[in-house]
Every structure is written in structure tokens, then in C-alpha cells.
Design goal:
Length: 745
């Protein structure tokens, strides 16, 4: 999937053909780790790709085949297998050359074809916006990656070569491509531990997004190298002497901070270039893990460490598998120098991440660790996909997880869990298991009770307390940090809302049929199958469940469906019950031919109590069948309901309070009080004596007046309970007036 456009077809010059051949010769020189038969398979894929791209040129004027060869060469550096190299050579064949997937399966086998298909963008004509197309393309690529990590390795190699040659494109395209690389591909490389690729993509993006800043920093860094050359040389000689004296065999590599990381540090911490002290550092590479700690001791004896600058990523690896000891020391001439101690295997993993499975699998003392790098995140992609059908929403979840600046917490059984910085107890619960997340009601951190929204800190011991009938709270979406938690909560809420709407729809259709003299609601069995099919054709629904859900959501009117069912039953010879019909239709809502819907507070999200009038048991109420939002309950005298009734009367249904209520209901009270010390405490005491829960309080901003207005949202059982509350408040000396808030007050 090249970001570089293909120029108009042209015949290759002999020089261009020679360049392409030489380029493939350079690739074959890297394939010594493959068997002869595998090399022949790769050569076969090259010949096919060369023929498919014949006549195509890159924007630089080079034959297009040079791009797939460069991508395959990067994959060969990672020692990927023959199938991956073949897919790298063929990765643009479907998109740019019109080659079909069945043809690739026939020539190169299903695994190679699947890799190429996972790398192929979706047909742009299928989407209305560029953003929608991009989101769906990324979803396809990431899901293919979750099934086979080679997809993203080839994609990253592809993007890296495109960024290296971005200068050949018109400058107008630099910003979009470099921004996409910095926002998406570099974080994916980091998430999978491909740090060398991550750093290169960041620097190339920085170079094309901010050319002037890049050039200025590059000059400053070049001058700095000259000034600090003596410091680095002296430090290196002293380090080598110290390790020789200790009898420890090491390999010392110099490390220089990338231009983008210098720029980001200057920007984030408002520093000048001269104030960035850790530009240079050393990697100390040893044979065994225990020697890393011995090397640390040698360095701490040689130079003084800076307090708070030691990190042990060997005992607790980073979330992407990175392992090293980090320490910052005061070196020669008072210069701060960072040192990283690691084994050879850790070094390979640090630079190549998931690719280390192929690159170093033969002698990796970490066993299967490198193979499992990123596995948890890749699996989470599939989990999120199961709960998310919208491509843009899926991509929003993934972007949250692309920045793994981690904190490390412990379960009560001392298992270490890596969580993104800013993660909360709810994120932790969903990381353990979705059922733990769904049923979480409370939590303890380090033995102390804390709210579920509490952010986690490294070293916390987290215990989640669950309840058997608990369920996710929509408010959790406001503070969860991980894509997995967000997708699980949204999926559960959607499923729960549909289930509640279906139950409400069944209740409404049953009552509408009673008003037509039909009882009970016909079962969906063989005997009634034909009738239900005719009803569904009338309503336009695919199934009985869909119809009932639509009725509950307000997308279908129960009375209209009931009249149609009644007509069909009468055609079949069934007569309505006249007594039942007359009894059910004896209602104040003569315009609506159905009985009243009983409300007890257990209806969930399918029934909403209007915030404009906040009805409570004892109020005269009406129900408005909103478009896709279920039943909205208003008081009869609500001005909003009256306007709706005048405009949309056929969508109103009769609703009544049940004799047995399951919960309290919220309403608003408006209080005028004297502005005196302790008035809020006195009012709160009056509420408490009436056994009322205050859910929200709002005060007037003007505090210099003699009186002020307080608006309370409280939960009461019914109108009798509300009257008791208002009497208690009126007896309070500081309260001048109490009234129930209405629309506009």
C-alpha cells in the first residue's frame, strides 16, 4: 500500500532495469537464513510482481518494483519467513495491478494471499468520506494483524520506505502522510516494541512536518557533538577501564537521542537545546541477566548517580516487552550521561520487538517471551472488534491503546499487571475479565476503600469487589482509559438497552391488542407463523424480536401494529372480545386505542422520565413515544408535553403509576433562603430528617445579596413524601420560600 503515486506507464530505460535487478540482487544477498526452496519461492514472487508492475514508475522516476523490493529487504533484515517476504513483494499487486486474491492463492498459496489481502486498502467508492474509508481500512489491517502479526510488520516496512522517499512527492502531501505516520504508525511500532523503526518513523515525520525546526536542531546537534566529543571519549575510556578491572566482558554502544525526542522534550518541558542534558548515552551489553546488575554496581562506583533516575525494566518489563536497567550518572566535567544495561537478547527485543521472534529465536534465552510480545494487545483487538461494529468507533478505541506509557500494579495474588498511565480501577477490572468489569461495585487499593474512578499508580495492590446483580454504569465512559474497557461497557449498555426495549415493546403491543379485544399476544410458533410473517411484511421488520424492539424504541406505533394484527385475525375468522375491548378503551386518552402502561421504576433505559418536569409517583402523567428513544414520561401539565401533544398527538400513550414501586424518583425543588452563615447545613439537615437523598445542588452566583436561591435535585418516593420534605423545609427559619421547580423556573 504505497503512499507514493504511480506515474504514467513508461518503458524502462536499460539503466532503470539494471537498477531494479541490482536492487533484487541486494535482497537475495540477505536471504542466507532461508532454505534454497524458500529462496526460489521468493524469486518466483519477485518475477510475478515485476511483471505486474511493468511500466509503472514511482514519483522519483524509478521503476515501481524498487519499492516492493525495499519493503522485502526490510523484512529480510528482521529475518521474516519466506511467506512474509513473498507478501512484501506482492503487497501492491491487488490494489495497483488488478491481480485478484484467487489468482494469488492459485500461484502462491492461501497464507501469502491472506497476508496481501490484509495489507490491501478497501475500495474507496464504498465510503462517503475519506475518514470513514481510512477507519475501515485500518480496522481491516489491524484485525488481519491480530490474526497474523506479519501483516503489520510488512505494513511498517512499507510505511518506512515511503517515508524515506517522501521528498519525491509534492510538498502539499507531506503534512498528511507525515502526520498520519506520527499519529498512527509510529505508535503501533512502539506498541509492538519495534523501537528502531519507531524512532526512524518519528524523525522522518518530524523532518517533513517541520523542515525548518528539523534543520535548526540538526545543526545544533552537530555543533554539540563537537563540543562534547572529549566528554564522550573520556567517559568511554574510563568505563572500559572500570569493566576490565572488574573482569566483566561488555560491549559498549553509544546512544544519541533522536531529533524528534529532543524536540518533544524541549516543547513539553519548555527547555532550550542547551538545557537538554541527556542527549548522549551508552548501552552496556553483557552476556547474562545477573551481569546487568554487576555492571550497574561498577558504574555507580565510577560515577555518582542522579537521585530518582534509576529504573529497573528487567524485573518489571515495559508493556511492549522492553527490558533494560536505566541509570543516569554525573560523568566527566559534570555532564549527565544515561546508561542502559541489557543482555544481547534484550537488545534484540528492544530494537525489534515482535520481529525478534524471527530474528533471534534460535538462541533467545528468554524462551517464548519474544514470540508473545504484543500478544495481549493483539488479542484485545479481536475482543474490541466483537463488541464494536462501527469502524470509526473501533479506531477510536485502538488509538487510546496506542500510547502505552505504563504503570505497574499488582493483583491481591501479587501478579503484576501493566496498565496505561491514567488507567482507573474499572480499566483494571476489565483487563482481568469482562465479567469482573461488568459486576464491579467497589474497590480497595492497598487495603483502603476507593472509588471506582480512582487512577492507578505504580506499586498499587488493587482488589475489585463485585456484586451478583451489578451492571456497568454509563458514567464509567467518562473516565475509563483503555479501549477494551470502553468497548465492553458500550457493548453491554447497547445490549441491555435493546433487551429492555424489547420487553417494553412486548408489553406495549400486548396492551394495544387488549384495547382491540385480543388477548394474549400471539406466540411465535408454527400455528401463528404465517400471521407473523404478514405482520412483519407490513411493518418492514426482519423478525418478531426486531418488531418488538422497534415498538419499545418508538420506531413503530403499537396501536397501528395491533390494528393490523386484529384485521388479519378477523380475516382468519377470530372475533375480538367486545367486553375486553370496551373495558380497555375506557381511558382518558381516547385518541390512542390501547390500555395504560404501568410504570414501577424498573423499566431501565427504555423508559425515561423527562428532565423538564421530573414526574414522581402521584403526578398525573402522559407518555410520549420518542423517535428511537423509547417512552418519555411527562407530567400532564408540562408545557413541553403540551407542545408535543399539539404537534404529534398520535405518539402519546396512556401511562400510569404501579401500586408497587421499585425505587425513588428525582424531582427539583427551588428554595429562597436568607444569605446567612450555615444556611446550607440547616437546609441539608431538614432534608436528612425527611430521609431524602440530595443528588445535585446549584446556587446562584450572586452572593452579596440578602437572599439567594438554591436548586436541589432530590430523590423521593412519591408526592406524599415530597410534601413531608417541603413542610420540613418551611419550618426551617432561614428558608423563606419552597416550591417545586417547573419548566422555565
Amino acid at each position: 500500500m504505497s503512499a507514493l503515486q504511480i506515474a504514467t506507464p513508461a518503458r524502462f530505460s536499460p539503466a532503470a532495469a539494471n537498477a531494479a535487478a541490482a536492487s533484487f540482487a541486494a535482497l537475495t544477498a540477505k536471504l542466507g537464513y532461508l532454505s534454497a526452496s524458500d529462496i526460489e519461492h521468493v524469486r518466483k514472487a519477485y518475477r510475478f510482481a515485476d511483471q505486474a508492475h511493468l511500466g509503472q514508475l514511482r514519483s522519483s522516476g524509478e521503476p515501481y518494483i524498487t519499492h516492493p523490493i525495499a519493503v522485502a529487504a526490510q523484512c529480510a533484515d528482521w529475518k521474516l519467513d519466506a511467506q512474509a517476504l513473498m507478501a512484501a513483494l506482492l503487497h501492491d499487486a491487488i490494489e495497483d495491478c488488478g491481480v485478484s486474491k484467487p489468482e494469488l492463492i492459485e500461484r502462491f498459496g492461501a497464507p501469502v494471499a491472506e497476508l496481501v489481502d490484509g495489507l490491501t486498502k478497501l475500495e474507496k467508492l464504498a465510503f462517503t468520506t475519506r475518514e470513514e474509508n481510512q477507519a475501515e481500512s485500518f480496522r481491516k489491517m489491524l484485525l488481519a494483524m491480530a490474526r497474523d502479526v506479519r501483516v503489520i510488520l510488512i505494513k511498517l516496512a512499507d510505511r518506512t520506505h515511503n517515508m524515506r522517499t517522501l521528498g519525491d512527492l509534492p510538498r502539499a502531501k507531506w503534512g498528511r502522510i507525515a502526520g498520519e505516520t506520527l499519529d498512527i504508525y509510529a505508535p503501533i511500532a512502539h506498541r509492538l516494541g519495534l523501537n528502531a523503526t519507531y524512532r526512524e518513523l518519528q524523525d522522518l515525520s518530524f523532518r517533513h512536518l517541520h523542515p525548518w525546526r528539523y534543520a535548526t536542531l540538526a545543526k545544533a546537534l552537530s555543533r554539540s557533538r563537537g563540543r562534547r566529543r572529549d566528554v564522550i571519549r573520556r567517559a568511554q575510556s574510563e568505563i572500559q577501564a572500570a569493566f576490565a578491572a572488574a573482569g566483566i566482558e561488555v560491549r559498549i554502544d553509544g546512544r544519541e537521542k533522536t531529533l524528534f525526542s529532543i524536540y518533544r522534550k524541549m516543547n513539553d518541558k519548555h527547555l532550550s537545546f542547551a538545557q537538554v542534558t541527556d542527549i548522549y548515552g551508552f548501552r552496556i551489553i553483557v552476556e547474562q541477566v545477573i551481569t546487568c546488575y554487576s555492571a550497574l554496581g561498577v558504574l555507580h562506583q565510577l560515577y555518582k548517580p542522579l537521585p530518582g533516575k534509576f529504573k529497573d525494566y528487567i524485573a518489571i518489563p515495559k508493556i511492549n516487552g522492553y527490558q533494560s536497567l536505566h541509570t543516569t550518572l554525573v560523568g566527566p566535567f559534570g555532564t549527565s550521561i544515561e546508561f542502559q544495561m541489557r543482555t544481547e537478547a534484550m537488545h534484540v527485543v528492544a530494537e525489534s520487538g515482535v520481529a525478534a521472534h524471527w530474528l533471534y529465536k534460535a538462541v533467545d534465552p528468554l524462551g517464548d517471551a519474544s514470540q508473545n510480545l504484543g500478544t495481549q494487545w493483539l488479542q484485545s483487538l479481536l475482543d474490541i472488534q466483537q463488541d464494536t461494529r462501527d469502524a470509526s468507533e473501533f479506531w477510536d478505541h485502538i488509538k487510546i491503546d496506542l500510547f502505552p506509557d505504563a504503570v505497574y500494579v499488582f493483583t491481591p495474588k501479587s501478579q503484576i499487571m501493566a496498565m496505561p498511565r491514567g488507567a482507573t480501577v474499572v480499566d483494571f477490572a476489565y483487563t482481568i475479565h469482562s465479567d469482573i468489569g461488568h459486576r464491579a461495585v467497589a474497590a480497595k487499593i492497598n487495603g483502603e476503600q476507593v472509588p471506582l474512578r480512582t487512577e492507578l499508580r505504580s506499586g498499587d495492590v488493587v482488589e475489585v469487589i463485585t456484586g451478583p446483580v451489578a451492571s456497568p454504569n454509563p458514567g464509567w465512559l467518562g473516565f475509563v482509559r483503555t479501549g477494551r474497557a470502553r468497548s465492553k461497557i458500550r457493548h453491554h449498555l447497547k445490549t441491555m438497552a435493546l433487551s429492555e426495549s424489547r420487553e417494553l415493546g412486548q408489553k406495549m403491543l400486548s396492551q394495544a391488542l387488549r384495547a382491540e379485544g385480543i388477548e394474549p399476544l400471539l406466540a411465535d410458533d408454527e400455528h401463528n407463523r404465517s400471521l407473523w410473517e404478514r405482520v412483519l411484511r407490513f411493518s418492514g421488520n426482519r423478525s418478531r424480536v426486531d418488531l418488538l424492539t422497534d415498538i419499545g424504541l418508538g420506531k413503530r406505533i403499537a396501536s397501528i401494529v395491533a390494528k393490523r394484527m386484529t384485521a388479519l385475525l378477523m380475516e382468519a375468522g377470530l372475533k375480538p372480545d367486545a367486553l375486553l375491548m370496551s373495558r380497555e378503551r375506557f381511558t382518558a386518552h381516547e385518541s390512542v386505542s390501547q390500555g395504560a402502561l404501568l410504570l414501577d421504576g424498573s423499566e431501565g433505559s427504555s423508559v425515561q422520565f423527562a428532565p423538564c418536569c421530573r414526574p414522581i409517583p402521584g403526578d398525573d402523567i402522559v407518555g410520549y413515544l420518542g423517535h428511537g428513544e423509547g417512552v418519555v414520561v411527562h407530567t400532564e401539565d408540562c408545557s413541553v408535553a403540551r407542545r408535543l401533544q399539539h404537534r404529534d398527538s398520535e405518539r402519546f400513550i396512556a401511562v400510569e403509576w404501579s401500586d408497587e414501586l421499585t425505587r425513588p424518583f428525582e424531582t427539583d425543588l427551588l428554595l429562597t433562603v436568607k444569605s446567612s452563615k450555615g444556611v446550607l447545613a440547616k437546609v441539608a439537615s431538614a432534608f436528612a430528617s425527611a430521609e431524602v437523598n440530595i443528588t445535585h445542588v446549584q446556587m446562584q452566583p450572586e452572593s452579596a445579596q440578602d437572599t439567594t436561591e438554591l436548586r436541589f435535585t432530590i430523590a423521593v418516593e412519591d408526592r406524599v413524601h415530597l410534601a413531608t420534605v417541603m413542610r420540613n423545609l418551611k419550618r426551617t427559619p432561614s428558608v423563606l420560600r419552597v416550591q417545586r421547580a417547573r419548566p422555565g423556573t
